[in-house]
Amino acid sequence: MKSSTHSGFDLIIFDCDGVLVDSERVANRVFAKILKDVCGLEFSLADMVEHFVGHSMAQCLEIVETLTGRPAPADVARRYQKEINQALNESVVAVTGIEQALNEISTLYCVASSGSYEKMQLTLGKTNLQRFFGDNIFSTSDVDRGKPFPDIYLHAAQAMGVHEPGRCLVIEDSPVGVTGAVAAGMKVFGFADLMPADKLIAAGAHHIFNQMNQLPGLTVTKSALT
Q1: How high is the pLDDT of residue 51?
Q2: Which long-range CB contacts under 8 A does 179-184 form with residues at least 24 apart?
Q3: Predicted confidence band at 6 (pLDDT cuts at 50, 70, 90)?
Q4: Residues 123, 205 within the same domain
């Protein structure tokens, strides 16, 4: 049952992976294995977070090309699509405290992710979080440019009927996402679970937190941050 926690915002926009669902560790473990098998690249979890978190698959493949000096083999994307769905279906869970936070926040909210609709349907469905958002879910496949451009945040806000970016709060866990949300003219809270806080701050996050159950209170006390 929702409480009457009102924020100073008209809309809260959540990233999905790493913010709503604890999928980043799973995804990066799968992707790292594929990169080792197919490209001969060896990355630690910290390396994977630094290079790939927050990016779409197309962007990740561009990063691989930059690192190797040659186009990523087609098998990388094919294997990832096959293996990530199986891995997420087996082990994805909700971020600790997110269900409590969503129950307590009475402000309008939605999802804006670099992930595909198929992936979000899997992860949000598997974790029983889909019920909180209904159709208020948006993917960068809806817009011309993905994160770190502001397009997805502006698109989500318009679709939700909020036309003043400054009245929107974005919850992100990657520098790429923070950069895009700041560029959209929105306030950004950086969720420093997997990503080091200093990287989120450097990207422009207005506030950092690391416990999701803190969020309802923060939306009230930190709403005037500039």
Answers
A1: 85
A2: 179/147, 179/148, 179/203, 179/204, 180/147, 180/148, 180/149, 180/150, 180/151, 180/152, 180/153, 181/13, 181/150, 181/153, 183/148, 183/149, 183/150, 184/150, 184/153, 184/154, 184/157
A3: low
A4: yes
Tokens of residue 47, six digits: 């390396």
**The token pair that represents 37 in the structure block:** 């098998």
CA angle 142, 137, 216 (to 5 degrees): 135
Residue type, 73: P
142 inside domain = yes
**pTM, to two decimals:** 0.85
Q: Which domain holds residue 30?
A: 24-91
CA nearest neighbour of 171 among 163, 181, 162:
181
Cα separation of 115 and 15, whole Å? 9
Whether the Cβ atoms of residue 112 and residue 138 lie closer than 8 Å to each other: yes
Whether residues 18 and 114 share a domain: the answer is yes
Tell me whether residue 35 is exposed, middle or buried, using C-beta atoms within 10 angstroms of its C-beta: 0 to 12, 13 to 18, 19 or more: buried
Looking at the structure, tell me whether residues 140 and 209 fall in a common domain. yes
Q: 75-100 pLDDT, tens per residue?
A: 888 888 889 889 999 999 999 999 99
226 within some domain: no
pLDDT digits 0-9 by tens, 126-135: 999 999 999 9
Give, in order, the Cα–Cα distances in Å from 110 to each of 39, 46, 169, 189.
37, 29, 11, 15
**Residue 170 belongs to some domain of the structure:** yes
Element (H, E) at 32: helix 24-34
The answer to whether residues 44 and 140 belong to one domain is no
